[in-house]
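Render Rab3 GTPase-activating protein non-catalytic subunit in 3D.
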Amino acid sequence: ELECVDEGLLQFCANKLKLLHLYELVSKLNSQSVQKDTPPSDNDLAKLLRLEEKDFHRLQTLLEDYKKENTQTTVQSADEKDDTLSLKMFLEYLEYEKDMINVKNMEDREYVALGSFFFWKCLRGESSTEEMCGALESAGFSPQILLSLLLNLWLSKEKDILDKPDSVSCLHSMLSLLSKMKVAIDESWDTQSVSPWWQQMRTACIQSENNAAALLSAHVGHSVTAQIIHGVTGKKFSQVIVGSDAESWEALSLDTEYWKLLLKQLEDCLILQTLLHSRVSKKSKKVSLLQTEPLGRLSVKKLLEAGKGGIADTVAKWVFKQGFNPLVLNLAQHKTNTDSTEESVEMHTNIFIEELEADAGLETILELLQLAYQQFPCSLEVDVLHAHCCWEYVVQWNKDPEEACFLLRSIDHLRCITNAHVQHGIALMMWNTFIVKRLSSATYLMDKVGKAPKDRLCRRASMGDTAMTAFLGCCSDLLQTLLEADVSSDEMQAPVLDTEDAWVSVEGPVSIVELALEQKRIHYPLVEHQFVLCTILYATMRFSLKSVKPLSLFDSKGKNAFFKDLTSIQLLPSGDMDPNVLSLRQQFLVKVVSAAVQTLCSSQKAKEVLEEELFPFEKGKNWPTLAVDLAQYLQISEDVIKRHYVCELYSYGLDHLGEEAFLQVTDKEVLASQLLILAGQRLAFALLHVQTKEGMELLTRLPPTLCTWLKAMDPQELQNVEVPIATTAKLVNKVIEHLPENHGQYSLALNLIEAVETIS
């Protein structure tokens, strides 16, 4: 009896019955195969999307590149068919409310499965779009829900869509049909207001991380909007304007403007994503775990929320994963600016011959980078990009200080920044955020042990000894760059940071370059003072020097000024320095020069090296020259250090280098008398220590004063006694040349020349 039946239960059963009928109908439509249309030609598709031939061709190229680089595929289990859905799931997720069907909240995968059940066959052109849309509308689906299901399906099937270009025309027909349903587009909608219907579609595209699918659906949305606007405006105004031209109406529509903006953003995003998928194949390079973490995927929404530096930041993260030479970024820039001179391109290209051989895939990367530069002339301006790369590398180094190569690369990128204001700000921020604390603990450790600390001690402080050496070298490079940037910034303007028109609505964190430009100017003398300490520490570690307490080379004022804010004014040492401190400084510089020559000599013995490669320790680090520069800061006579360098070279038997270095010395007379003793030690070894018969005979013929003098010589002070006598003869001639005749040792030198000539 009807009265006895609960009304709610009756309604429940009636609703479930309707759903069952719908399920049967959709399954039936899916099983009927329709006559497939011939796939549309490129020309048809271009017309459908209202694109000029060249624009359509560009779109195709972008999608091809994206497909090539985007090799991630979604794995589908064998039992999942796209157009089937279990009845249980269908009944579970759909419910009726007042003749309308609602979809319950469900996970993405299930939402896609539901959309797939309704629309996948239609998108492949295997089912009738009209019948399916008609059935779903009659069943009580709102067009908004259907649009949401359709878009979700489309955006999740990117790979299939790219393999089947004709699915675009199927999407176009479906979207046209859905848009014509009642309550899809509000009756009151006109060209001057934004329709929530199109806004819903744009929002889905903005949030999608499947850039190619989103770009295609936006093109379809734009085209259908234009088609409908043409219809609406045509109807309303055809009486007034004869032969109204679609273009002029399109220009008036607010929705069309929003579509155009979104198309530009999606294209930018696609180009960027294609770049981020490309990689340099590394043949032998050791890769850090930090470089293997995958990059997240991009969406327009993510970029709009990432702040002004978001675009450069994503590219910098990719550069870090690739680990290529910073000059690659400049080379792509040179290729983009076609007006750059042939020479500069040639010069840059030569640098890369080696890189290209080492890294397969660099050519593709250069092309993709150029394209990204053209899309983002402001966000990826080369200085901005180097600044972000510099920051990314130092952030990653900070996670693992053993990876000294990251800090070195960070400094390389810093040095590539051409605007001194940006360079100054980034360097100062690096110093304050990552460097100064570690440097001060390294300093106090070295001062405590009074020498270059062993690996175990270094590790306790923060990093191994090799990493520590590189770190100290980077600190001195960083401060040197900061000093240079401070000087150069007086000669140039700070850059104006612009944003591309399509991205002006970006919100989010302040960019690293904006922060850099807000930094206060440094106090030059204080940075110089800190630079001297860094170089002393670096030399101590580099040559494993013993008995050096770095802080003992400074007075109390000097010590107090270390590790202070570099923009502050501090009391620095001035006037005369304590003689004891000066004596320690001179001893230190002498040690550095001796160690440098020793390293040079052993590297020469290892293999015959070209002269310009004689200081292969570091890029462009010439320690003897550096020691002379330090002498100037430390109030030590530069000439004393230069003379010591010459004597060390001769002591090691590197006479050819000694002759060159001789020219740099100011007081050649003092140097000549120092070298006279060196020549005497060589001769003493040849005559007294080898003790050949001829040598003994010769000794008897030498003047007695010379004999006595030679016997007083100690050849053990020489580092290398095996020097040909002809070479020593040249040395004695050089000595005579620079000793005045009234010099106390002039006659001794003359006797020495005769002796050497007799021997040879």
